[in-house]
Design goal:
CATH architecture of the largest domain: 3-Layer(aba) Sandwich
Number of domains: 2
Number of strands: 10
Structural class: alpha/beta
Number of helices: 8
Order of helices and strands: EEEHEEHEHHHEHEHEEH
Radius of gyration: 17 Å
Shape: globular
Largest sheet: 6 strands, mixed
Distance between the termini: 34 Å
CATH class of the largest domain: Alpha Beta
Strand order of the largest sheet: 6-7-8-3-9-10
CATH superfamily of the largest domain: P-loop containing nucleotide triphosphate hydrolases
């Protein structure tokens, strides 16, 4: 069974068509790149898969569940790291994760485990408002992993991370793949794309190319003809 199936997905905002007949599938444990320039439709695509936007037409399944007809069950199977970290700045790191653990019905012991896992244990009682962008990104990743999703959606995941943070993220993504977590990584960074097995290139909301990261980067650079 595929972890993610997207079929003929379309979405418009007024007269602007953000996605046009987008189709692809992602296997369990696979890292799948979604490449494209700013405005190509990457974030819109991930938000629809996450159940945060409704498509105009087409179908999306996450771990065998239709996102449109069973949105709550689909969200239980999905975690997302977006541009907005979805954190409460007035709360501490631990309080943020405890809040989301309550929402998902996750044991509170999971909070400390994840703070350790993302390297924030010693900052557990610091308010998030005092965090650097990289620290917020690590906490956002911990939030997305709280309920152990089968599918992880990552929108520019290395944003705000320094060199050591990017190395940590690469190691974590490899670990998640071994666990069987499927990942969609929306990016325009070649290094992030090259960590994936396959992917698609979006241009003006359409799939302009699909295949290996090398091939997609070549097309994006205008060298694929």
């Amino acid at each position: 069974m595929h972890a993610v199936v997207v079929e003929e997905l379309c979405r418009s905002f007024g007269s602007q068509q953000a996605l046009r007949d987008v189709s692809f599938s992602v296997r369990r444990g696979e890292r799948f790149a979604v490449l494209g320039a700013n405005g190509a439709g990457k974030s819109t695509l991930l938000r629809i898969i996450a159940g945060l936007l409704r498509q105009d037409s087409g179908r999306v399944q996450v771990a065998g569940v239709d996102v449109a007809s069973e949105p709550l069950e689909a969200k239980r199977r999905t975690g997302m790291v977006a541009h907005d970290p979805w954190l409460y700045p007035e709360l501490t790191a631990e309080e943020n994760l405890r809040f989301y653990a309550g929402v998902y019905g996750v044991p509170m012991s999971r909070v400390k485990e994840l703070l350790e896992e993302v390297g924030l244990a010693r900052y557990a009682h610091m308010q998030v408002s005092a965090f650097s962008k990289g620290m917020k990104q690590r906490l956002s990743i911990a939030r997305a992993l709280l309920h152990e999703p089968q599918v992880l959606l990552l929108d520019e995941p290395s944003s705000g991370l320094d060199a050591s943070g990017r190395a940590w993220l690469r190691a974590k993504l490899e670990e998640f793949s071994r666990r069987g977590t499927a990942m969609l990584i929306a990016t325009h960074h070649p290094s992030e794309a090259m960590s994936c097995a396959r992917g698609i290139l979006l241009e003006a909301g359409r799939v302009a190319a699909s295949g290996s990261p090398e091939a997609l980067l070549s097309v994006a650079a205008g060298e694929g003809e």
